[in-house]
């Protein structure tokens, strides 16, 4: 906000958010200062030029595949989200210049094909559960990487509800798919299904909801599971 206020004097036309995103996210390398992600409270974002944070000039981007940072980024992404395609990697990090890094580490990786024939990459020793492994009910926060970590979000969200992944809704996973949204209002945990739920599914959601209320520690007194509006 302080940076935008200074820029408005020079460029009064663009909206404030545009100025902030251009400066902080696009044009000037910045480090977001800790603490962030504070528990039960909010705080403004504070940024510092990256060179100031590091105490030295920023290394120039390499022009070839000899980029150890890019290669490590590929490994770290696959450790968290593999098997995944190079398109998934690009969608997750927003960087278009990683094909050389993928090529450089390809000999370290194992490959698979998904149902549509796309190549998936993974680390050789990464855990890969059997497809029939049960997926327990989970309550996800807004913008969770389970939703945003891949290009093809239909893998976890039905097409009719793809917008939930970027709209800031908190999602409930049932059998590994987004099946409801949740929120906390007036000391009540509200759960809104996106499809009709079976009795066992409702029981599993209520059980996980109880664990969530203890974790949140916000004095939640009731859990309300709404009826699904038939489409």
Helix content: 25-40%
How big a fraction of the residues is strand?
15-25%
The first-to-last residue Cα distance is: 43 Å
Number of domains: 3
Number of helices: 8
> What Rg is obtained from the alpha carbons, in whole angstroms?
22 Å
| Low-confidence region ranges | none
Topology, element by element:
Layout: H1 2-10, H2 16-27, E1 30-32, E2 47-49, H3 50-54, H4 68-81, H5 86-93, H6 99-105, E3 110-113, E4 119-122, E5 138-139, H7 145-148, E6 170-174, E7 177-185, E8 188-193, H8 199-216, E9 222-225
Parallel strand pairs: 8-9
Antiparallel strand pairs: 1-2, 3-4, 5-6, 6-7, 7-8
Q: In a nutshell, what does this entry contain?
A:
The chain is α+β, with helices and mostly antiparallel strands and 231 residues long. The protein contains eight helices and nine strands.
Description:
- The chain has eight helices and nine strands.
- It is of the alpha+beta class.
- It is globular.
- The relative contact order is 0.08.
- The mean pLDDT is 86.
